[in-house]
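Possible regression after last week's pipeline update?

I re-ran a chain I had predicted before the update to compare outputs. Posting the input and the new output here so someone can diff against the archived version. Not blocking, just want to make sure nothing changed silently.
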Amino acid sequence: QWRLAESGGGLVHPGGSLTLSCAASALNVDTYTIGWFRQAPGEEREGVSCISSSTGNTNYADSVKGRFTISRDVAKNTVYLQMNNLKPEDAAAHYCAAHYSVAVDCFLQSTDYDYWGRGTQVTVSS
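New output (post-update):
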């Protein structure tokens, strides 16, 4: 039975940092491309970052470039999202998602992703 389990969310002050984890079961992170998405109340789901299964190439939304870093530990079958210099507009439920891919690059189209975790909440407030 596949599973994507997010953790690491919480409350942080503006300018602070958090690291989210996405632990995968029955989906290998070197076979499935993993993406991070977020959704704030009343807003559409937004792609944040992804990491390609085959190459480890990464992709970021313009809004997080230079502040967020996605990485993976294949041995732990886990993908991480390091979030620095957090802003109030980063506050949202954050989800990891997966889809089988052999592509060199990854993309942040949510409809490409077949498997979704339940999310972890990130709150940025002073």
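Follow-up from reviewer: compared with the archived run. The mean pLDDT is 97. Marking as no regression found.
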